[in-house]
Specification:
Elements lengths: L10 H15 E3 L15 E3 L2 H4 L2 H17 L4 E5 L1 H11 L8 E5 L12 E2 L7 E9 L3 H12 L3 E11 L4 H6 L4 E8 L13
Parallel strand pairs: 3-4, 3-6, 6-7, 7-8
Antiparallel strand pairs: 1-2, 4-5
């Protein structure tokens, strides 16, 4: 949505970007066998790696996310897991806003070398936002937030591409005193099985 600045993405442009992201990420069971984490077949899922590894969409998403983060006074982003890597790097590549710094969160500190839990030039004294591709139950995001905080970072929010509104993830994260911002809220279901995130 537009925030009044000359580079602000219009609402129409944002809706169109969200639609393209969704269309490119959507995988249906008619296309290939897809399963949930327990190995049970599901009707659909969103694989955000498909659009985010396309150079054009990568650049567009980076500009939009950077714009939104800048409007909130944030200049640092961190990602946890495979789905967040392209998001972090897309924000770092944005040219319409001041430069960002980024980091990646490990499950546990690397046992050798610099032995860090969080890689990258993040400043513990400045606010940082967690980037994730999909907010579903919020368990993965809560884990990443816990890791960041345990390493002394000042986490202020979570930004995602998609939010599955039926899963309660937003409430879980907001219950920790953080803001949540998603490019697209999804309230669709497929039969009895909801879609899965990209894993």
């Amino acid at each position: 949505m537009s925030n009044g600045s000359p580079n602000a993405t219009s609402y129409v442009d944002l809706v169109e970007l969200g639609r393209r992201l969704y269309d490119r990420a959507l995988v249906r069971r008619e296309q290939e066998l897809i399963t949930d984490p327990r190995g049970q077949p599901i009707g659909w899922l969103l694989d955000t790696r498909m659009p985010m590894l396309d150079g054009e969409i990568f650049r567009e998403v980076g500009e939009v996310l950077a714009e939104r983060l800048h409007s909130k006074g944030v200049g640092q982003v961190a990602g946890f897991g495979f789905g967040a890597y392209a998001l972090v790097t897309s924000v770092l590549s944005a040219t319409s806003t001041p430069s960002f710094v980024g980091g990646f969160i490990r499950e546990q500190p690397k046992p050798h070398g610099r032995r860090r839990l969080v890689e990258g030039p993040l400043d513990r004294h400045q606010p940082v936002v967690l980037l994730d591709d999909i907010l579903n139950s919020g368990r993965s995001a809560a884990r990443a937030l816990s890791l960041l905080r345990s390493d002394g970072f000042n986490v202020v929010g979570l930004m995602t591409l998609f939010n599955f509104t039926w899963s309660g993830g937003r409430q879980r994260i907001e219950g920790q005193g953080l803001w949540v911002d998603s490019l697209l809220d999804l309230n669709l279901r497929d039969g009895n099985r909801s879609g899965s995130d990209s894993g």
